[in-house]
Amino acid sequence: MDLGTNGNGVNSDAQSDSQISHLALDIGGTLAKLVYFCGNKRLLKNDEVQSSVKAGGRSRTIIQGKLHFTKFETSKIDECIAFINRKQLGSHHPKDLDNDRIVVKATGGGAFKFAELFKEKLDFCLDKEDEMDCLVAGANFLLKAVDQEAFTYIGGQTEFVQINQDDLYPYLLVNIGSGVSMIKVDGNGKFERVSGTSLGGGTFWGLGKLLTKCNSFDELLELSHQGNNRVVDMLVGDIYGGIDYSKMGLSSTAIASSFGKTISTNKVLENYRTEDLARSLLRMISNNIGQLAYLTALRFGLKRIFFGGFFIRGHAYTMDTISVAVHYWSKGEAQAMFLRHEGFLGALGAFVNYNKQGHDNFILMQRVEKHKPELDGITTEEEDSEYASIDCSVYID
To answer: Where are the annotated coiled coils located (predicted)?
Structure first.
């Protein structure tokens, strides 16, 4: 890609800041996630840059910029397409030699489902990448390249985890999307899906919508924040007269049966607050995932468990519930760790996979050496302010 001049022979250095916009997509059953790179400064060539670039056998230009993150509901995929079109994302991608369409990396089931739509609306040819490959590649990239990416959260306290790259593998990656996949990662490109469950984010949203009439996942999460699950959950104390079941190590506040209290009253659905129903549902799903994750880690002797996927959303109660479940079942020997960019693993993995594509004259990711993510000073109404953009560099032919 020639960054020096545009089609009219005019120097385009001044334009390169806003026009170097490459993207990758992860279109799931519930959400469509985008990762896109915008260059903000071109590195001047110097001996150090030239030597490192030429070490790969070719001379390449290095561009500094940021990786940005945003999402859309898959049911509103037209909004995603309009966003891409408005920002002219992908305009600098190469074109497929066979059909002259812009080539864009994509993963998830929607990459197949909406391929024709992207072709019709944007003239994109979606280059489909395997979903599990992308999840692992995205997680590995974040854990190796981005400082203060992984953290623990329990009892309201956040603590960032320093990742030792020499001792990263093996680990368990628990990706909570519409369903849940549990992946044992042994290295770059070395992984196995060892477990999973159909009770995931889609379950929470689906049942929550039926129970509360909420119109969005975020609305349901906010509603759960205001609820009290003890109104509908049967606790150990409800069974034992308000006391602990000490012999089994169960406190009186431990949940014996999610939604169990509803069977012993004459109330119907309309008699319960939607906030309490949402809280109970969130706790039920989160507890179940935390327990299954630990049991899977125990089966393979794994001490590190990383949770990703848009079910979490950085939601304090969700993270605390998962953390408590892992801590309880492991007797404190294992801990749940979360990722700041939890919902974008697949999209990041698809982006990183531009490294493996066979087209000439295209973008290649340069690994960010422990670069700390920083929040943008200003975010547009279309971008997610809660997801920090990542300062990084790319190099191109």
So the answer is: none
